[in-house]
C-alpha cells in the first residue's frame, strides 16, 4: 500500500489504512518526541496522542504537504501544550532580583474530592464493562495494572503496535460511551 492510497483510505475510515500509517510513521514521531522529551514514557504518550489527533482530523490533511511533516507538526504542538500546562501548575515568582521562590499549588484532595473520585471510579468501571472483552483487558493492563506497552505485548502475545492501536481504539470507544451517558 502506498502512503497516498493509505491516506485516501484512512479518510474513508479504513482501519487497515490507519494501521499502515501508524506502522509507517510511528518510529519517526516517537524518535522526534524522544529527542524533545528525553523520556520514553512521555514520548510514547505524546506519540499516541499525535496519532489519535491525526486520525480524528485526517479530513483536514492537505496533500500539498508531506504526511510525515503534518504528523510531526501535530506532535510538536501537543508537546508544547503539555509544557505550557506544566508551567502553569508551578508558577515562578520573584520578590526581587536576588530572592526567587516557587509558588507550588496544593493539589491534595479534600474529603469531598475523595468521595467524588470514588463515585467517578465506580462509574468509569461500569463504562469499561460496556466495552468488548479485549478492550477491557488492554485498558485494565495499562491503567489499572500499570504495565508498559512492552509488558502488555508480552502478556497478550501481540506486537507492540497492535497493543498501541488497540489501546487507542479502546480509549476512543470508552470516551464515546462516557460522553453518551
UniProtKB/TrEMBL annotation:
Pfam families: Sigma70_r2 (PF04542), Sigma70_r4_2 (PF08281). Keywords: Sigma factor, Transcription, Transcription regulation. Residues 125-174 form the RNA polymerase sigma factor 70 region 4 type domain. Residues 28-88 form the RNA polymerase sigma-70 region domain. InterPro entries: RNA_pol_sigma-70-like, RNA_pol_sigma-70_dom, RNA_pol_sigma70_r2, RNA_pol_sigma70_r4_t2, RNA_pol_sigma_r2, RNA_pol_sigma_r3/r4-like, WH-like_DNA-bd_sf. CDD domains: Sigma70_r4. Belongs to the sigma-70 factor family. ECF subfamily. NCBIfam families: sigma70-ECF (TIGR02937). PANTHER family: RNA POLYMERASE ECF-TYPE SIGMA FACTO, RNA POLYMERASE SIGMA FACTOR SIGV. This is Sigma-70 family RNA polymerase sigma factor. It comes from Winogradskyella marincola. The lineage of its organism: Bacteria, Pseudomonadati, Bacteroidota, Flavobacteriia, Flavobacteriales.
